[in-house]
Amino acid sequence: MTATILNLPSLYDPFSTEAKWQKFWEDNQVYKADPNHNGEPYCIVIPPPNVTGSLHMGHAFESALIDTLVRYHRMQGRNTLWLPGTDHASIAVHTMLEKQLKTEGKTRYELGRDQFLERAWQWKAESEGTIVNQLRRLGVSADWSRERFTLDEGLSKAVVEAFTRLYEEGLIYRGEYLVNWCPASQSAVSDVEVENQEVNGNLWHFRYPLTDGSGFVEVATTRPETMLGDTAVAVNPDDDRYKHLIGKTVTLPILQREIPIIGDEFVDPTFGTGCVKVTPAHDPNDFDMGKRHNLPLINIMNKDGTLNANAGEFQGQDRFVARKNVVSRLEADGVLVKIEDYKHTVPYSDRGKVPIEPLLSTQWFVKIRPLADKTLEFLDQQNSPEFVPQRWTKVYRDWLVKLKDWCISRQLWWGHQIPAWYAVSETDGQITDNTPFVVAKSEAEAWDKAKAQFGENVKLEQDPDVLDTWFSSGLWPFSTLGWPEQTQDLTTYYPTTTLVTGFDIIFFWVARMTMMGGHFTGKMPFQTVYIHGLVLDEKGQKMSKTKGNGIDPLLLIDKYGTDALRYTLVKEVAGAGQDIRLEYDRKKDESPSVEASRNFANKLWNAARFVMMNLATGHGSTESPFPASSQSLELSDRWILSRYNQTIKQTSNYIDNYGLGEAAKGLYEFIWGDFCDQYIELVKSRLQPDADPVSRRVAQQTLAYVLEGILKLLHPFMPHITEEIWQSLTQQSADSPQTLALQPYPKVDANLIDLALEEQFELLIDTIRTIRNLRAEADVKPGVKVTANLQTESQKERQILTAGQVYIKDLAKVETLTITDKQKSQTVAGKKPQKGLKIIGLTILAIILARLGFAVGNAIYETPIVGAFFEMVGFLYAAWFVSQNLLTAEARQKLWRQFFQGTESQQAQQPENAIAGVIGTIQVVIPLSGVVDIEVVHAKLEKSLTKVEAEIQSLSARLNNPNFVDKARPDVVQGARDALAEAEKQAEILRERLRSLGL
């Protein structure tokens, strides 16, 4: 690779750049998968977004994670396929179309099925591109030539095949069962389409009189209208209050129906009165209880939520109107005891936005136990699929164990129509619960079967219902690859490698895919399930339409660019499966965290421009995999190459183990810190025209080599800016098919990793940083060079500092640098004449004080008892002194220094008019005389100290106020304590700075 000219603009424009490369990648079919590719297959199928949808932050987060994995493995040389597609979203589309018809004063029944479906397909053709085009704006590297739709011809064929096979195997049946019913859409809904909402309701208490007239039992319920369908009252058989009543009967109020009192362990004696009404046709728990006790099932509800003839005088009333009227009647009859306020959870239809009604209905079901048990075998015997994080394995397993038969029919028209045909000629032209039927793969096959069974005059009508969307979604990993045909794609890419999805649909989608995959293919549909968390808003709350706290990803893309948003979402992940919180200012529609990623992109852009400007003038190249011979590499070159290879190793290890957030953060630290802030600064002097030619060429080669590696490492996270820079750095032609996306990912060269060197260089960098900070504190002007004295007792540290002194002098603007043994310099300092005079004076004073002490001591010693006491104290002190100061060589050396070289605090004292700092065991001293105006610096420090002391006084006053400490929130009080500690620390530093100035 050789770069000879610079063609990067001075400012990075993400918007034109991103659009350009998205078009380039698609036009050149960069991401088109080839099953004949030699690499190991790596396949991810997209969790299909609803065709009705538009891009939300969850889509952006999930897509960024998937694309990072796919791009990384593609660059690793694997045969990669990211298969995109959308889901037909039967309930969402159906509801939307019915709302449109309602505005026109029509119903779907008036329009007819054919015209309704025509409208649905027309709407799909107009709107399906919205979510797909928005996903494309994220720069996802999907193979759009393989895009699928759950209602396309191939997938529809797979659905029919799956249904007929399961039916023929006895795993699909038609029967009466309690289902979640949405009165608004008048359809059964799955558990995933039910949203539990906490509401402020009531608990009604009323009496059921014992039929024998001996008393009554009191029950409590949150749905009093359902008492019209009661067929029993239940108590716990171990409840001493009621066990004597088991076997008796009560008379149902209003309807005067005689019903039994049963004993069932399901009853919670602590709920309400300990007696519960049993309505098997309108409550799932009651339904199970009814089956255990052979209770009749009485349905009182029509499909539109009104009451039917079984409700007696309340027939035709809406369920909530009937609730009020039933309560009024019970009160009038004198059986209403009381009404309590009661907060409880009510299941709502996610689409219809109304409370669902458990309704007894004839539906199609999948017999789930055989499918779930086979899937459990894969999990328990092969740990397949493997969950990341592993904690979700138990959740998944528990769900499989508890699964009940799956209701797969929906009373809708948009979707896969159930491939069953009813012989309506056998039931007076109507489809009833008892109408015989045939299941077939086509209408022609259905006629053949029906004629053979019912004769030539049979009349057929296809089941009007459609299949649950999750039925077709359960086939997604293999139906999208061509199943039931044994296609080359299916052979190559199935089982898929990784499924990336949210934890909220493990139960509804992941489990269905594993059950379907295990049954139809004999394999789990994916090797690994990577469960990601949620994107929370700026307050740490889940985003939802109800709360109105969503953040539009397209708005942030338009403001900061796609790469900035993608990188932020991935970088914020603290660990696999963790939620992330996105900073956001709603007043300004700005995100500080995304802005920081945009700044990171700009930093990389400017660093690349610097490198290429210097390559253009010096014809730098990276034609060999190793930038230069080890003999010509200088200290900083060896350091950056070691850090670069460490970063390759770290990044690959993180991504391989799904630590995408950690990988992103590590790249940020290396690129911004090590490469941009350190290495580029270190080599600037070597790039000057008058620099040594060999050193300059090595610096150019190393810069280009590491920069290209950085672009490859960062590409999976920020594909657009890295592609743009790489194209310029490698001088690819504008229409060249070469692309960074298909370049090999960097490999670790272990020979270039030198951990000892990195540790040593870190010391140099910290030293440079400390000198720079001291210069800033003393207001030394940037162009002024200073004198610096580095003192350390460690010979190793002195060697490191000496080896890197050229970097210290260059980057910290040091003209005179001395590196000395701290101990020797202090000894020499102790021999100064003025210190000698001080020592003599102090010695004379000590002799005088000692004489006085002896006189006083003799007087005390002659006093009875007191003398003995002081003698004992003296003995104990002598013993302590010897143990602390004379037993070890280190203690004796320390004592020697204290007596003859001054105390450690005196050793730390610096010359007046100097500023000092410490890095570990290294002391940095910068004399300020002649460099800055000492009095101005002194005044500035005093002003800062006055401000900090005022803050200390204010915080202390707050913390000494009992009202504040006792009444304020604990986090506020702790914040004040932390602020006080920080202020006191700042004050001590400022006082030390003032003392060092000597004024």
UniProtKB/TrEMBL annotation:
PROSITE patterns: AA_TRNA_LIGASE_I (PS00178)
Annotated GO MF terms: valine-tRNA ligase activity
Claim: Cell wall biogenesis/degradation is one of the keywords in the record: no
Residue span, Methionyl/Valyl/Leucyl/Isoleucyl-tRNA synthetase anticodon-binding domain: 637-785
Listed name of the protein: Valine--tRNA ligase
Renumbered ranges of motif 'KMSKS' region: 542-546
Domain statement: The C-terminal coiled-coil domain is crucial for aminoacylation activity. ValRS has two distinct active sites: one for aminoacylation and one for editing. The misactivated threonine is translocated from the active site to the editing site.
Family recorded in the similarity comment: Belongs to the class-I aminoacyl-tRNA synthetase family. ValS type 1 subfamily.
Keyword Transmembrane helix in annotation: yes
Coiled-coil annotated residue ranges, if any: 938-993
Domain Aminoacyl-tRNA synthetase class Ia intervals: 20-582
HAMAP family: Val_tRNA_synth_type1
Lineage, broadest ranks: Bacteria, Bacillati, Cyanobacteriota, Cyanophyceae, Nostocales
Encoding gene per record: valS
